[in-house]
């Protein structure tokens, strides 16, 4: 790849006390691709993702977005820069409606005096927008945009969370274990969603333990081991067993 | 190598597994769903039913504009404090210091006027600011210091109540003195009647407060944030809600509303008494719980609290007019509390 990475990390270091979670780690995400990040538990995958999405501040190293160096101090910073993260816990309020959740923290106010002085929310516009975004991603099975998120199935919730990220994430979407809590059928829907989002040209970082899922959707696989990027492999040229072997250290990559 | 990759084939089986059947809810399920969407419905039904029952038993003695507005007057203080309590409980907190804040605010309004000779408007403003400040301290301790709300407000309750007795020297300011020198202190007790119905400014304030808070909670970003913080603070934080500021503003606003209740308290009892309002904590929590707001946060509506306060008022007056022992009121309210929480738990099962 000769392109400039859209999101790039260089020499990232993060220590927690005596534990070094990230040890001079590099990271590259290219435009329009799905990059899977795999690694054993404790390898530092989530520290890496948190470092590029602003959830933790790296001790050393640089993060570049579209060729410009950025210093995120919170996930909100990263979000404003166009990086949306779908957390494993989904970060949704179960008792609130789909619309409320999609716009949480970035509500739209009514135009005119009602928005300005009464600070009234523009529910109609928010609902329309939410409905559009859900149907864009083929989530038409949700009948009522005002139903509480807790009344949705796990897959539907994941769908809403992905739709939220896709609606606002202009540059990068990070998905943390999106299929971990789902059944087979629901996982399938979410994988289709991921493909849909990719088709719209937004690059995706996918963190997953599920090798079949990773190999199915990823364009490149970043293998993380002992706080570093061990290698980046092409899923078409490697088998899942290779990936697992690299991950666990049973096998060394030929050209690291 | 390729042998161990055989699990790859499993993904192709995926389409055969787990179809979702469309649930037919049935009558019970429909009711459950309806209550889930409209949490104020239960207390409204109980309120209407109890008004009808007492109306049938007592006839025009109960079913008159005078008696019905008397209920409003009797619940105004609890109603105002319960509105503050609702905000805090919606954030999955609890405020045990509401009564103490109301009382100390009323004492400050009175003492600043009579001890220091400040203009009464200034004294009232000082009382309101003091209530807000205590609320903000509660909020800061909960949001920033991460102390449990129960502990923070339990401590604050004792501190404020003791400060109240120390500062006021346990001294009551008499009603006649207030009437002569500072009638503004009794403003919220001013009565006017329409037909046979008697209203006070405090009652009007309570109703307006409930309407305004209902609007704010439903139609502003801040209101949605209050629910989100109560529902799941971590999720709210990750979605971009400023959880700390939301909590501090909720406790601060609760303090301000309690101080308003303190002002209304002067109007209601006429005098400024440091020993008044001792039961406001429990009564406000009772109204909130009967009103269907979940003590676990994030669910319920302020209208429910209003209905909850009215239910208590209807039972109190109705049973008194029936000549029943006052203990029957407490007994029935105890039953209502447990029933309300049972209904809340049942409604929550929709999510499963």
From TrEMBL, chain A:
It comes from the Bacteria. One of its GO terms (molecular function) is ATP binding. InterPro entries: AAA+_ATPase, ABC_carbohydrate_import_ATPase, ABC_transporter-like_ATP-bd, P-loop_NTPase. The keyword ATP-binding applies. Residues 7-251 form the ABC transporter domain. SUPFAM superfamilies: P-loop containing nucleoside triphosphate hydrolases. Keywords: ATP-binding, Nucleotide-binding. It holds the Pfam family ABC_tran. PANTHER family: CARBOHYDRATE TRANSPORT ATP-BINDING PROTEIN MG119-RELATED, SUGAR ABC TRANSPORTER ATP-BINDING PROTEIN. This is Fructose transport system ATP-binding protein. It comes from Jannaschia seohaensis.
Automatic annotation (TrEMBL), chain B:
Keywords: Cell membrane, Membrane, Transmembrane, Transmembrane helix. It comes from the Bacteria. Its main location: membrane. One of its GO terms (molecular function) is transmembrane transporter activity. It is found in: Cell membrane. The keyword Iron does not apply. The chain crosses the membrane at residues 40-59, 66-84, 90-110, 122-141, 147-167, 188-217, 248-267, 279-296, 302-322, 329-347. Pfam families: BPD_transp_2 (PF02653). GO terms for cellular component: plasma membrane. InterPro entries: ABC_transp_permease. The keyword Transmembrane helix applies. It is a multi-pass membrane protein. This is Fructose transport system permease protein. The lineage of its organism: Bacteria, Pseudomonadati, Pseudomonadota, Alphaproteobacteria, Rhodobacterales.
């Amino acid at each position: 790849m000769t392109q400039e990475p859209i999101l790039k990390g260089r020499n990232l270091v993060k220590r927690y006390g005596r534990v070094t979670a990230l040890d001079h780690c590099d990271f590259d995400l290219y435009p329009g691709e799905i990059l899977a990040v795999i690694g054993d538990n404790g390898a530092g995958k989530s520290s890496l993702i948190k470092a590029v999405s602003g959830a933790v501040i790296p001790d050393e190293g640089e993060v570049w977005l579209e060729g410009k160096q950025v210093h995120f101090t919170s996930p909100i910073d990263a979000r404003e820069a166009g990086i949306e993260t779908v957390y494993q816990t989904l970060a949704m309020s179960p008792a609130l409606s789909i619309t409320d959740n999609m716009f949480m923290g970035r509500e739209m106010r009514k135009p005119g005096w009602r928005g300005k002085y009464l600070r009234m929310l523009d529910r109609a516009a928010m609902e329309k927008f939410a409905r559009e975004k859900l149907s864009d991603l083929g989530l038409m099975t949700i009948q009522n945009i005002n139903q509480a998120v807790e009344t949705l199935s796990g897959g539907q919730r994941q769908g809403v969370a992905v739709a939220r990220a896709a609606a606002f994430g202009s540059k990068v979407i990070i998905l943390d274990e999106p299929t971990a809590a789902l059944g087979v059928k629901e996982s399938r829907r979410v994988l289709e969603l991921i493909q849909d989002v990719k088709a719209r040209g937004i690059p995706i970082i996918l963190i997953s333990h599920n090798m079949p899922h990773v190999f199915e959707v990823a364009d490149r696989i970043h293998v993380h081991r002992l706080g570093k990027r061990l290698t980046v492999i092409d899923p078409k040229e490697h088998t899942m067993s290779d990936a697992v072997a690299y991950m666990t250290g049973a096998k060394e990559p030929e050209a690291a | 190598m390729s042998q161990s990759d055989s699990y790859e084939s499993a993904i192709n089986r995926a389409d055969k597994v787990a179809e979702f059947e469309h649930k037919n809810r049935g009558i019970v399920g429909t009711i459950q769903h309806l209550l889930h969407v409209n949490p104020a419905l239960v207390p409204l039904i109980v309120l209407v039913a109890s008004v009808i029952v007492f109306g049938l038993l007592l006839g025009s003695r109960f079913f008159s504009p005078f008696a019905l507005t008397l209920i409003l007057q009797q619940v105004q203080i609890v109603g105002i404090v319960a509105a503050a309590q609702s905000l805090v409980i919606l954030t999955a907190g609890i405020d045990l210091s509401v009564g103490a804040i109301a009382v100390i605010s009323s004492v400050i309004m009175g003492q600043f006027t009579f001890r220091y000779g400040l203009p009464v408007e200034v004294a009232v403003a000082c009382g309101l600011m003091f209530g807000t400040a205590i609320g903000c301290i509660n909020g800061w301790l909960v949001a920033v210091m991460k102390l449990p709300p129960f502990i923070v407000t339990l401590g604050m309750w004792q501190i404020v109540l003791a400060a109240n007795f120390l500062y006021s020297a346990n001294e009551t300011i008499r009603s006649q003195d207030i009437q002569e020198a500072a009638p503004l202190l009794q403003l919220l007790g001013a009565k006017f009647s329409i037909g046979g119905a008697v209203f006070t400014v405090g009652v009007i304030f309570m109703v307006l407060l409930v309407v305004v808070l209902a609007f704010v909670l439903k139609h502003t970003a801040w209101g949605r944030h209050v629910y989100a913080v109560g529902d799941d603070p971590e999720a709210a934080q990750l979605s971009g809600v400023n959880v700390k500021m939301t909590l501090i503003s909720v406790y601060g606003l609760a303090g301000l509303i309690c101080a308003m209740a303190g002002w209304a308290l002067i109007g209601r009892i006429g005098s400024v008494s440091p020993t008044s309002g001792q039961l406001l904590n429990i009564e406000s929590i009772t109204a909130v719980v009967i009103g269907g707001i979940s003590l676990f946060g994030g669910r319920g509506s302020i209208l429910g609290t209003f209905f909850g306060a009215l239910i208590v008022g209807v039972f109190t007056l109705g049973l008194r007019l029936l000549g029943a022992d006052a203990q029957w009121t407490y007994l029935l309210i105890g039953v209502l509390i447990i029933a309300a929480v049972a209904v809340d738990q049942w409604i929550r099962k929709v999510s499963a």
